[in-house]
Design a protein that fits this description.
The chain is of the alpha/beta class. Helix content is about 30%, strand content about 25%. The protein folds into two domains: about 140 residues, Medium-chain alcohol dehydrogenases, catalytic domain (Quinone Oxidoreductase, Chain A, domain 1), CATH 3.90.180.10; about 140 residues, Rossmann fold. Helix 6 links the parallel strand 11 and strand 12. It is globular. The chain starts with a strand and ends with a strand.
Length: about 325
Amino acid sequence: MFNALVITQPESGYRCDLTRLDEAQLPAAGDVTVRVDWSTLNYKDGLAITGKSPVVRSFPMVPGIDLAGTVTHSDHPAWKSGDRVLLNGFGVGENHWGGLAQLARVKGDWLVALPQGLSARDAMAIGTAGYTAMLCVMALQRHWMEAGVAPGSGEVLVTGANGGVGSVAVSLLAGLGHTVVASTGRLQDAEHLKSLGASAVIDRNTLGAPGKPLQKERWIGVVDSVGSHTLANACASTRYGGAVAACGLAQGMDLPASVAPFILRGITLHGIDSVMAPMARRVAAWDALASTLNRGQLAAITQEIGLAEAIAAATELLAGRVRGRLVVDVNR
């Protein structure tokens, strides 16, 4: 028997409860069983747990798009009992039971070996949010390398900077020597963002309203987890030949933008998908995180909660009242 969060949709309405399950109830569609040590709470998990968006595709569903733990049984040639693994995405927590549980049965093709020197807890403190931030940074780095852009040669904007993606992006970019400007709706946390490496902090309202199709050139690169008008304004104010990595929709799925920045300034918009990213890119991102992310800063943006606490925390996360990352100890 094991504990899990289980989402159901009875006639009385959408529910998420802490439930006791039998291992025999795990999905048959999987060839590796993992004893989960740690999970995490991402924005998508918040949507799934609260039902605020149709993230969950079938019921009942164990949410949790991330997990880290130890293989207990494997019918997959790449994995054996005792292997330390992590998983992000691939529809886990949406259409396949996920990581907010003490046990998970998944496909071995979805797993990544836990990088050497990275604990399961730290991996989940990073989670999909931090892994997505790394994918964004890698996209900008590839662009800058081709364009001959050196660190410190201009400002890099990070929107939603107090969130999971934004916090890690600020830390990563500053650690690589870039001048980072953090955009947030919580200016009272400006000193915290500066402690992560931001050189300046701006109010998100300066980017969140409709703006001109072309604005004063400022950014050599952008990591955007917000979408909508914020992304449109970020594109409009990116310098000639610069790049924007878009990975989120906290403000909205729309993009009320003009083609002007793309055809007059030659900027590039990189769409970042973390769910179905190729395995080689996943491994490269996790290896880079293990070797470059400042662990002290990671600890500073991480809060720990128990499995049962994740239900209430999901509401707080969607309301924008959570700073940084929430790591979930599924065994308490």
